[in-house]
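Handoff note, outgoing to incoming analyst
You'll be picking up this chain. Sequence as last confirmed:
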Amino acid sequence: MKPENWSQVTEFIILGFPHLQGVQAFLFLLLFLIYLTTILGNLLIFLVVFLDSRLHTPMYLFVSILSLLELGYTAATIPKMLSNLLSEKKTISFSGCLLQIYFFHSLGATECYLLTAMAYDRYLAICQPLHYPTRMTPALCVKIAVGCWLGGLAGPVAEISLVSHLPFCGPNRIQHIFCDFPPVLSLACTDTSINVLVDFVINSCKILATFLLILSSYVQIICTVLSIPSAAGKRKAFSTCASHLTVVLIFYGSILFMYVRLKKSYSLDYDRALAVVYSVLTPFLNPFIYSLRNKEIKEAVSRQLKRMGILK
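Most recent structure output, in case you need it:
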């Protein structure tokens, strides 16, 4: 189509799971319960760490920030997904779509940086325990946290700017469960190879670099732990890393396959399934992973419940 014949799309239709139209009410109820549990679980961890002075350590500071981050991360997509499950008109404005992409990717990038900072914290605590108190100071923790947020918020600006200048002349049906770069790029009425390349470079630097830093931290942690002579010492050292490592594997296991690639998209069902994992299941599982596998957080929750008179 010639440029002069382009009619700019002003809104998109998010198709979600078109093959599951008969169970929309069930999907709404399931997603609503998952979202409610995600909010309550992450809010509980954040408040417990904030209120319990015994948890005012670098590791739990980062855990509380991660919980707060998950609240924003899920708020970028799940409320609109819930609305679309109940509505016949599953539309989103062009600017609304770009905003959703921006917040989803900026908060996702912040999570990558924060998980890397948490890995560095565990590396210092296990591999350099004598230097840990002087290196990982409260002031440094705050600086790292602020750096993670600023880096994440600045991350998608270039990609959003490029997409905002693309012509979209129809169709306007997004074959995904929310607005995201790959499905939106596939609707552009011009060549998007530059956009795909820019996305690949940025995502490779952002996702692969942080994942490799986390991996290198854990290689050194494992080597240090294996050198501990007592079995009890090994178990204690591994227990402080188990929750974080589990979250890293679930989160990175899905986003690596979704965003570090030189194609607009793979199969639609493949992309949707991956999106459910990193946008819904990972934030939902985080509170369970950090509470069920962490004795200190479970004890802190119990203390707070007793203080409020809920437990005796």
